[in-house]
């Protein structure tokens, strides 16, 4: 996890042969810096995938694509909506939610999620029987989301807000309503319920993502979502906004 939160999101995934970014919501220079801090080099990337057009997910995608000649995988609707953030990108590759595709050795499956964007996507990334599920920026966990997140070795799940902190916090009412809506963000409790439905014995890691700096705390998120682990041996951690997470290796 290179960054996670309302100021920028980006995830690095590699099988040692193919390396991709899921979203690039920081500046290109900052993404390069954060990768370098973990011994990674942006010139070794093979592609960037974009989940939706909000700037905290797409800000650096265009510049990285131009600098390193990277293809950008994006849905047609998101491509149109993100045009002002992306700028000119020579290699755009469109995908449709629900239709899987390959990037070299990685199998990618985008699936529709409920969020206030044109065509927002979650992703699974799999190779040799190991699957990573990514579902952030979703207002509700639909049956489709739950289906795609089953049988994952690693899950990256949104735990955006504590409902009490949100309602008692400084956000204006219309923004509180947006966050709580079906097109907003998952609360800690909703993330716990989702995890409870998709966890299984083969799950080794859970990363809680897109925490609100105003309406949540890492400890609140952990305390709530961990209740779904039910003596599981899976490791559960919280992704941060300002620093990279650990480079996790999944067998």
Automatic annotation (TrEMBL):
Domain of life: Bacteria
SMART domains assigned: Lactamase_B (SM00849)
InterPro entries: Metallo-B-lactamas, RibonucZ/Hydroxyglut_hydro, WalJ/YycJ-like
Spans through the membrane: none
Signal peptide (from-to): none
Gene3D superfamilies for this protein: Ribonuclease Z/Hydroxyacylglutathione hydrolase-like
Domain Metallo-beta-lactamase stretches: 7-185
Name of the molecule in the record: Metallo-beta-lactamase domain-containing protein
Species of origin: Desulfonema magnum
